[in-house]
Amino acid sequence: MKLSGVRSTELDPVTPQPADTEPRPDRRGRTGLVGLVRAVPIRWRILSIAALNSLVVLVLVSLIWSGARVLRTAWDDVRQVRESDKILALLESETGRLQNLIHRYINQPSPDLFAEILLLREAVLGTLTNRASTDPMLSGSVEELERATERFLGGFGDLRALQTTIKSTYENQVQAPARDIAALFAVIGGATGQRDALILPPLGRAREAFTAMLVAANSYYLSLSQQAAEEAQQNTETIERTIPVMSSLADNDLQKMALEKLKLRTTALRDGLQELTDQLAKRSDLLRNSIDASQAATIAAIDALSVKMRQREQKAQETFDRTLTGISRKVLSIALIFLGIIMTAGIIIALSIRLPLQQILSSMHAITSGNYDRRVAGTEAKDEIGAMARAVEVFRENAIDKRKAENDLRESKEKAESALLELKTAQQNLIDAERLAALGSLVAGVAHEVNNPIGISLTVASSFTRRATTFEAELKGDTPLRRSQLDEFVRSTRDAAQQLVGNLQRAAELIQSFKQVAVDRSHAERRQFNLHEATDQIVASLKPVLKRAPIRLDIDVPESLVIDGYPGAYGQILTNLFLNAANHAFTDGRAGTITITARPRGNDDVEIIFADDGAGMTPDVQRQAFDPFFTTRRNEGGTGLGLHIVYNLVTQQLGGRMMLESRLGQGTTFRIIMPKTATGGTASAAPPIDGNLQWPTRTISSS
Q1: Which UniProt keywords apply (predicted)?
Q2: Is 575:441 a contact under the CB 8 Å cutoff?
Q3: Which DSSP letter does residue 552 get?
């Protein structure tokens, strides 16, 4: 905790002043005035400023209150005008929307539109009755607005009745004759017995005119197109002109009778179209003279009221602005006067606080810069700043004690760092010892496995030497050498040579296998290797351990499984797992089986399972199995780094993950899932030399 670093940041802008320096002549008067003010406690000095501010507030409140009444009256007028204007805007919007709905209903009648018109009608009447009639500025004009609105709504009733008549006329006097005419055209065409009858051409023209008439009549009814009305009348006249021609060409009584009826229905259709035209024209006049004219009268009345509202609002606004300007001038004058008084008093009070604080600040700066020999000035004062100066003096004394404590702490830190360095060295030595132990096990395996074939070779060679000496003596003797003796020597020589070659090849294979394991173990080089061959080589180096204990080893690794990774790391993983099982799972000569299986997992991963049916682990042991320096055989030389090194190799160098499953008395299974192409780096499996061990995150299953 370094207080000097924090305090120096705050105090740098202040130039330290010696506590015992005499004031300059041009500051003596100010210092004397400050001394008089310092006779009053700081809280009373601040309260005096507050009292002046309160006085200013009271004066200003009285002025504002006197003008507030005038402002309130003017503002009430403005607010009332705006409320009235909102009501007029609402009426104008509702009547305009009602007019649009009526036009839409006349063009496309529907129950939904009619219901919406009724709801909007009630809303307009409600606005006039409930809001406009209670508004003091609109109450005198409500009757005129209500009359205009009633005319507007009454015109909608007349218009709706006329619309019902138009619909009846269209259905009974236009569509009904049209259906009869269509049926008569069918009768006339059916009564024609020959395809080349003379009546067929005028009949076709009449049908075409009838079809065009129907289209034009529908268009006129829906869109009020004058062109469509004229087209319907012309097609009707065409049909009437065609009927006498067809009558003269009729060749049977049925056709003649149908043509007579066609003439009557065509005349009725022409009259119906004329009636429909008159009624639609009447509807247009009613829309224009009743609906639109009443709407225009309503809008004109609303606009006239809006003009009156604007004039009244302008007058109220002028009164409001004039009163507000007067109040502002008075408030500004009084504020300036009191501001001068308050500023003068504030400067004097500020000097009575600032000058002593500068002395304390100078002392603090000296303390933070390490000058603890300078005493704090102003400790004899009786006000609050004097108490602060005495507190700073206590702080100076504490800083002196703190400096002494820091020196002691620094010495303790150096001792702790020296002890930590020794601990790091011991830790690295322990890791090296673990590696040397594994190397010693490998060397012992080499010596034991190679000793058997070499020993047999030495025995065969010695026997062969004695047999050669005997044969040489027989050859040099006086007795002639028999063929059977020569054959026996050749046969024994061949057997000895075969045994020598076989045992020496076995020794060479073992040495080559151990050599490859040793090279992979001592060099962290990445290469492609066959997982089956690498497993066999590693197991061969572990056979001495198998012979010392009744442990059976089952291996199931596909021969085609190729890994791009670090064979040395893989060898160290299997060796550590095997030695861990031999030392912990099969203690006291207990028999059992170790199973090593491997299989592809998808296209990119390999799953390796190392399982034993030994003693198993308790849940507490499983939770700490991969922790560094944790071992259950501390008294028997265990270091607790074997499984920790295995976990780091799997997760860091091979880029895989490792899971532990164990049940007490039923065995332990290590499940390793790693990519076929290693994704980790070549970092050592040993803990970091800085002493910060990596504590793994484990996946454990236990019961």
Answers
A1: Coiled coil, Kinase, Membrane, Phosphoprotein, Transferase, Transmembrane, Transmembrane helix
A2: yes
A3: E
Return the higher-pLDDT residue of 638 and 587: 587
Q: How confident is the model at residue 138 (pLDDT cuts 50, 70, 90)?
A: low
Q: pLDDT by residue (tens digit) across 586-610?
A: 887 788 999 999 999 988 999 999 9
In one-letter notation, the amino acid at residue 105 is Y
Strands 657-663 and 592-601: unpaired
Strands 667-675 and 605-612: antiparallel
In the beta sheet, which residues pair with residue 671? Answer: 609, 659
**Secondary structure letter of residue 25 according to DSSP:** G
Strand-strand pairing, 551-556 and 562-565: unpaired
CB 169 within 8 A of CB 275: yes
Task: Check residue 291 and report its DSSP letter.
Answer: I
List Cα–Cα distances, 54 to 37, 41, 48, 217, 432, in angstroms. Answer: 21, 20, 10, 88, 83
From the CB of residue 298, how many other CB atoms can be counted at a distance below 10 Å?
24
d(CA 88, CA 85): 5
- Report how far residue 121's alpha carbon sits from residue 111's, in angstroms, rounded to the nearest whole number: 15
CA gap 674, 603 in Å, rounded:
12
Listed residue (617, 273, 639) closest to 430, CA to CA: 639
Q: What are the residue ranges of helices labelled H in 369-524? A: 384-476, 483-522
Tokens of 240: 């009437």
What b/e string do you get for 462-477 counting C-beta neighbours within 10 Å, with b at 16 or more? eebeeeeeebeeeeee
Residue with tokens 């406690």: 41
Architecture label for domain 525-702: 2-Layer Sandwich (3.30)
For 23-155, list the strands marked E by DSSP: none
Contact predicate 606/673, CB 8 Å: yes
| Cα 691 from Cα 703, distance rounded (Å) | 34
Where does residue 262 rank: exposed (0-12), middle (13-18), buried (19+ CB within 10 A)? buried
Q: Are strands 657-663 and 667-675 parallel, antiparallel or unpaired?
A: antiparallel
